[in-house]
Automatic annotation (TrEMBL):
Residues 61-244 form the Class II aldolase/adducin N-terminal domain. This is Class II aldolase/adducin N-terminal domain-containing protein. It comes from Aspergillus tanneri. It holds the Pfam family Aldolase_II. SMART domains: Aldolase_II. GO terms for cellular component: cytoskeleton.
Length: 298
C-alpha cells in the first residue's frame, strides 16, 4: 500500500486537549484578533474542566452540534458517516453516533458509549453502532493517542476529489489550513468491516497529520476537540469543491496560480492552532443550538 503526503512541515501540531496551553497564553491564537488597548479582551478558546463528568456532558453536546451541522451540509448518505470522541471519564472508551439515525436529528442523549473492543456499554444510549465506523475510528484512536476526535463521512466533494488519489493544492488561503498536514490513502480495500482496513487508514493518516483523503472513499479529519475535527472536515470538503471547480476551468485553458510555499507556510503557522480550529466551529455550533431550540443539548 502507498500514501502521498504533503511533506512541508507546519510548526503547530494537534495535541490532546489537556496538554494544550490556555488560550490566553497562546500568542499564535491571540494574534488572530484585536481587543482593547490594555490587553484585557482576549479570544476565548477551548474551555478547561475540573470535573470529568461536566466535560463529558460538554463533549456530548458539542458532538451533537457537529452532527447537526453535518446534516445541514448534506454529509449524510444512508447509514454512512461517523464521528467519535474519547470519553473524558473512562479511559479507552469513546462516543459514537447510533446506527442509521439522521445526523440532523441527533441529540446529546442519542450518543453511544463503546469500549475499546467496540461493544456498547452503560452510560450512553443503548443503541447499535456502525461496524465499519468502529473499525476505522478505533484504529485511528489507537494509533494517535493524542487525538480526541475523529470525523469521517462521504461528502460529495470530498469523495469526488478522492477519485484522483491526490492531495489538494494550495490554490486558496483556506486550503492552507492543511498545508504540511494532509496525506492521501492510495488504496481502497472496500467497506471497512475488518481491522486491516482501519489499520491501513490510520497508517496513511500518519503521526502528525490532521486530515487524510481516502482514495475512492472520502475524507477523514482529527482534532483535539470534536469542534476542531468537524470544522476541519468542512474546510477540507470545501477545499475539494474549490479544487474540482479549478480543475474544470484549467481544463478549458485557464491557468491555476498556486500559493507559494513560504506564503502557505506562513498562513499555516498562523491558523494551525487547536484553539483557532475550535473557535472556527463555534458560530456553527451556536446556530444549530438556536435552530434546534436547545433540543440537541438534551
Amino acid at each position: 500500500m502507498s500514501t502521498t503526503t504533503i511533506t512541508q512541515p507546519a510548526r503547530h501540531t494537534i495535541v490532546a486537549e489537556d496538554t494544550i496551553p490556555p488560550a490566553e497564553n497562546s500568542p499564535v491564537f491571540q494574534a488572530l484578533a484585536r481587543g482593547d488597548q490594555h490587553g484585557k479582551l482576549k479570544l476565548r478558546g477551548i474551555p478547561s474542566f475540573d470535573d470529568p463528568y461536566a466535560k463529558r456532558q460538554w463533549v456530548r453536546e458539542h458532538m451533537a452540534g457537529a452532527f447537526r451541522f453535518f446534516g445541514k451540509q448534506g454529509y449524510g448518505e444512508g447509514v454512512s458517516g461517523h464521528i467519535s470522541v474519547r470519553d473524558p471519564v473512562l479511559p479507552g472508551h469513546f462516543w459514537m453516533n447510533p446506527f442509521a439515525k439522521h445526523f440532523s436529528l441527533i441529540k446529546a442523549s442519542d450518543l453511544v458509549l463503546v469500549d475499546a473492543n467496540g461493544y456498547v456499554v452503560e452510560g450512553g444510549n443503548q443503541a447499535i453502532i456502525n461496524e465499519a465506523g468502529f473499525m476505522i475510528h478505533s484504529e485511528v484512536h489507537r494509533a494517535r493517542p493524542e487525538v480526541m476526535a475523529v470525523a469521517h463521512t462521504h461528502g460529495v466533494y470530498g469523495k469526488t476529489w478522492s477519485a484522483f488519489g491526490k492531495p489538494i493544492e494550495m490554490i486558496t488561503q483556506d486550503a492552507c489550513n492543511f498545508y504540511g498536514k494532509l496525506s492521501v490513502y492510495e488504496e481502497h480495500g472496500g467497506i471497512a468491516l475488518a481491522q486491516d482496513e482501519g489499520k491501513a487508514i490510520a497508517n496513511a493518516l500518519g503521526k502528525d497529520n490532521i486530515a487524510c483523503i481516502l482514495q475512492n472513499h472520502g475524507l477523514i479529519t482529527v482534532g483535539s476537540t470534536v469542534d476542531e475535527a468537524a470544522f476541519l472536515f468542512y474546510s477540507l470538503d470545501k477545499a475539494c469543491h474549490s479544487q474540482l471547480m479549478a480543475e474544470g476551468a484549467a481544463a478549458n485553458g485557464v491557468p491555476k496560480k498556486i500559493i507559494q510555499d513560504d506564503v502557505a507556510q506562513f498562513t499555516a503557522n498562523s491558523v494551525q492552532d487547536p484553539h483557532n480550529f475550535y473557535l472556527e466551529f463555534q458560530p456553527e455550533f451556536e446556530l444549530v443550538v438556536e435552530e434546534s431550540g436547545g433540543r440537541l443539548l438534551q
